[in-house]
Amino acid sequence: MGTASRLSDETWLLILEQLGHRELGRLACCSKAMYAFSNHHELWKAILMEEFGGNFHFRGSWKDTLLESKGHRPTEASKPVHMGWFRSNLLYQSWICSNVSVDETWIETENVDRRKGLSLREFRQEYEIPNKPVVITDVVTEWPAMGKWTDEFLVQAFGEYKIHAGGFLFDLKDYLRYMEAVSEERVDDQPLYLFDKEFARKAPSLLEDYRVPEYFQEDFFSYLEEERPDYRWLIVGPARSGSSFHQDPNCTNAWNAVIRGTKKWILFPPHITPPGVHPSVDGADVATPVSLVEWFLNFYAESKDLECQPYECICKEGDLLYVPHGWWHLAFNLTDTIAITQNYVNASNLKHVLHFLRSKNPGLISGVEESRRPMLATLFEEKLRESEPHLMRQLDQDEAKRREKSAASKRLASIFTQDNTTVDNPAPAPFRFCF
Question: Which segments of 47-167 are extended strands (E)?
Fold first, then answer.
């Protein structure tokens, strides 16, 4: 590559992202290094998604899928190219994340309580008030959705409506075909994940097949009716897909019920930022490893050395996980999965939600149109004062006491920090480490 070898792998991929499929094909003929870079699957995936969105039939690789979508003959299988001296940690990382098997150590720890026969009072006292996760094992098993939500049933239920996956619109049958192929071939270290917030409008019959458990039926956001933030999603994905570390929106609590498949969960309490995760100061952005497998390869062992151990569990078909507000969590699909999740606000987290909506930059509020975000807190409070006047009076009193206590603490602190500096009594020089 000559002087071009001075460029980092990341820079080369940024350059190649500007090219079309013909240019990538020609460049692949120039050298072994360019062959490796130009065949990177993420480049072909990006071109395909930009040109066709979700309107494609997956053909085993992103390159072949793009070529066939354009009416070209897919590439024929050829002998592997011996790369000689060429090495790229970046390309290798992507390949290994697509092909490495799930390590047994990643799934052997389960330290989240698993409960059945849990009364509403027990749930609130033992988990909701302490803000602690729990797996509930005997609720989802009673839903009609169990055993009913086959691929064929869901395709029929959605009819002509498209679904959202990876930021694009798909016919559900096309997405399911992709999901099957990517699970078998392991060609994608970041599988597209179906996360559809409009499933109830597109396939309303699905609402008849599950029921919000009694533990989560109190939901104050429901007072907003059509004005409420997005709150429920149908989730479908292949093995190795999932959601990277995040905290749920607007300080809401959440529950996630597995209808089919198996999920690995890792959770950290609100005050512990997971290793490898770097949120911005205002919380608007969170930098995480590119793929879930990459996090497990590079940071899972480190998480086990922390003084505060992560909470871990595996949710199988019929399990439901309660995720308290503010908790960092990652969900990693060990198999093809179908799940339902909902976020909600009740008495346990209402003060946190109100504080978030009042004090945060409106840009951090999610689930509503940008133009409505600045007024969401006011509208929500108005609805609460109409429907929950006693609760709101109690919160007002608690807030007044908090402010009074804070003011008293500041007055006390000021007594000890008054500037008594005089000529005869100069302020001491600040202490510094010197090396």
Answer: 114-115, 134-136, 162-165
Residues 6+ apart with CB under 8 A from 16: 24, 27, 37, 38, 40, 43
Q: Is the pTM of this model over 0.90?
A: no
Q: What is the pLDDT of residues 82-98, one digit of tens each?
A: 777 788 888 888 888 88
- Farthest CA pair distance, the chain: 90
Nearest residue to 15 via CA among 34, 41, 2: 34
Q: What SS3 state is found at 265? A: strand
Residue type for 132, please?
K
The kind and range of the H/E element at 43 are helix 41-52
How many degrees, rounded to 5, is the angle at CA 192 between CA 81 and CA 296? Answer: 75
Q: Mapping DSSP to helix (H, G, I), strand (E, B) and coil, where does residue 103 land?
A: coil
* Whole-angstrom distance, CA of residue 402 vs CA of residue 404: 5
Q: How far is CA 198 from CA 161, 231, 320, 323, in A?
A: 10, 10, 21, 22
C-alpha distance from residue 331 to each of 67, 241, 258, 293 (Å)? 33, 8, 12, 11
Q: Phi and psi at residue 394, in whole multiples of 5°?
A: -65, -40
Please report where in the chains the tokens 């609130």 appear, as a residue: 124
